[in-house]
Amino acid sequence: MNQIASVPAAALPKKKHRNLAQGVVESFTGSIQAGTLKPGEKLPTESVIMEMHGVSRTVVREAISHLQAAGLVQTRHGIGTFVLEPQPTNMFAADTIRTIGDVLSILELRISLETEAAWLAASRRTDEQVALMDAALKRIVAAPNRAVAVESDKAFHLLIAQATGNRYFVDILSDLGNTIIPRARLDSEQLAHDDPKAYQERVNREHDDIYHAIQRKDAEAARAAMRTHLSNSRERLRRAQQEVSA
């Protein structure tokens, strides 16, 4: 009979630490996402994790490092490793808004959102909020450059959201960030073949109409003025998109 030579254990291929660590990472990630491990809860000690997964201390420490890098846990030296509160992802991150079509889609969202925000703001605003809106509009007019104008424009729209008294309007517009101002992403006047001065004057008039409606607490006029402002922005970009595609 032929003898089957035994292969020494040392000659068997070993799994890489990275693969073993990934298994530990996936296990804890799954538990955190499923809610089995809750925010603030302490992970087992290194020794317990070693026993649970049959891995070395080196593998456990590598896995913990990956979990830390992913923002899932935080290690407090001498105390232990704890599960962190989940961080919301921002679907409106700047690198996801790349084309005229993307900006148009954002404008469609804003039309449905901000027309109602303007209506509520006109109904609920305080005198202090009106004064802040007025100051923001003056900063836009006096802006020495495009960056300052964009920031002041964004502040004006956020002030309207704040005047609704509903923090969720503020949360959404804050997540949108500079994407709420088309010219922060695109050279709107150039795309629309507008004279920059005429373009800015038109936008300023639209802002004034919104502001004065909110100032006099005319909710319907505020809603109509906001819809006109955002619809005009959408139409300018739509024409520009057609020209680019032609």
UniProtKB/TrEMBL annotation:
Classify the source by domain of life. Answer: Bacteria
Q: One Pfam family, short name please?
A: GntR
Keywords linked to the UniProt accession: DNA-binding, Transcription, Transcription regulation
Write down the PROSITE patterns for this protein, in alphabetical order: HTH_GNTR (PS50949)
Outline the extent of the HTH gntR-type domain.
18-86
Would I find Transit peptide among this entry's keywords? no
GO molecular function (one) = DNA binding
Q: Name the InterPro entries on file.
A: GntR_C, TF_FadR/GntR_C, Tscrpt_reg_HTH_GntR, WH-like_DNA-bd_sf, WH_DNA-bd_sf
**Looking at the keywords, is Transferase present?**
no
* Cross-referenced PANTHER family: TRANSCRIPTIONAL REGULATOR, GNTR FAMILY, UXU OPERON TRANSCRIPTIONAL REGULATOR
Q: What is this protein called?
A: FCD domain-containing protein
**Lineage of producing organism:** Bacteria, Pseudomonadati, Pseudomonadota, Betaproteobacteria, Burkholderiales
